[in-house]
Write a structure and sequence with these properties.
The chain is mainly alpha-helical and 166 residues long. It has one domain. Helix content is 77%, strand content 0%. The chain has helices at residues 5-22, 29-36, 40-44, 48-70, 73-80, 92-104, 111-137, 141-165. Helix 1 runs antiparallel to helix 8 (141-165). The protein is elongated and about 65 Å long.
Length: 166
């Protein structure tokens, strides 16, 4: 199974695009600013090229991690990786891998399936992480739900793209 780097790059753009809409003042931006304690003055003093650049780099990492959550076939490789003959053309284990992937390599490789895993991952991973940080930062539930909603939407779209394109 080869990695589709275009899918990873496109998926890495999703948090930026989603954030542009989600955090717009007409959507959740004003509520987020109030819940987070952000002010117009603070926002104007930010180095936005640096923030967007680092966001894209972090989104690339997030995109690669998401691929591990939504592509079941990658786990098959990790199970057999240390078997003698793995990766050697013509070996018994490599023939098994090739036959298995030929038969099952495209199972569960749809946008819908990736979106489902994006949603599940956001509930089981993102919600707890944001909640824990927010509790210690003394942020309210509005802050938690706004940020979790953003990441849930982003992960649904990212998961769908990655799962259907790779």
């Amino acid at each position: 199974m080869e990695m589709n780097y275009l899918a990873i790059l496109v998926a890495a753009l999703i948090p930026l695009l989603t954030g542009m809409i989600w955090y717009n003042p007409k959507v959740c931006g004003t509520a987020w600013m109030n819940a987070s304690g952000m002010t117009e003055e603070k926002a104007k003093g930010a180095n936005m090229p640096l923030i967007f650049g680092l966001t894209f780099i972090m989104s690339l990492l997030f995109s690669l991690g998401t691929s591990l959550l939504v592509i079941h076939q990658s786990h098959f490789y990790s199970i057999l990786l240390n078997e003698p003959g793995f990766g050697e053309s013509g070996s018994a284990i490599q023939n098994y891998v090739d036959e298995f992937m030929l038969k099952y390599g495209s199972n569960f490789r749809t946008f819908k399936h990736g979106a489902l895993h994006g949603f599940i991952s956001s509930v089981l991973l993102v919600l707890p992480v944001i909640s824990i940080n927010a509790l210690f930062e003394r942020k309210g539930w509005k802050y938690i739900w706004i940020n979790t909603g953003y990441w849930t939407l982003s992960m649904i779209i990212m998961g769908g793209i990655i799962c259907s394109w790779i």
